[in-house]
Amino acid sequence: EAGARAYIERIQDVTRAIVLGGTPVVGAIRGWGVGGGLEWTINCDFAIAAEGTRFFFPETSLGVFVTGGVTELLPRLVGLQRARELIMLGERFDARQALEWGLVWKVVRDADLLPTALATARRIAALPPGPVKALRRILARQQGGGLDACMKAETDATVTGFLDPESARRAASSASLKYFSSS
Question: Does residue 59 carry a catalytic annotation?
């Protein structure tokens, strides 16, 4: 259990750095934003997705649990019913749908992804840092008032899933990349 908990805490530390850190985060997402990749997409200040990007949460079908503050942040973005659908049923969706739901800030052509992300980062970097840091801190408190408690609960649930032999079997069999085939 200690090893599984330490592993999940390292994952949660990434979310803490993205959401609660002092530096704005611009995400450039291409390909598959699955599980933790989707969680960290939601954590970004400005998530920019390439047109062909696809997303989903496979955790529940594997017998484990989401992390990254998703159980608090996702319902705020998409509503409780859609959050249940996405997490429990693992529904897949594309970049345009992610934009419509507010999970990404912008969708661009694949070739424009990195130039757009870099231009956005430069624009933010040119701003005075004091107000930017204050805004991030205030918004994190507003959106994630219970983020630490939420992430602790997620960690406990994920560790439980990792320690379950059936979940380990499911996760091992998912390595065949069957989850990444088109649906």
Answer: yes
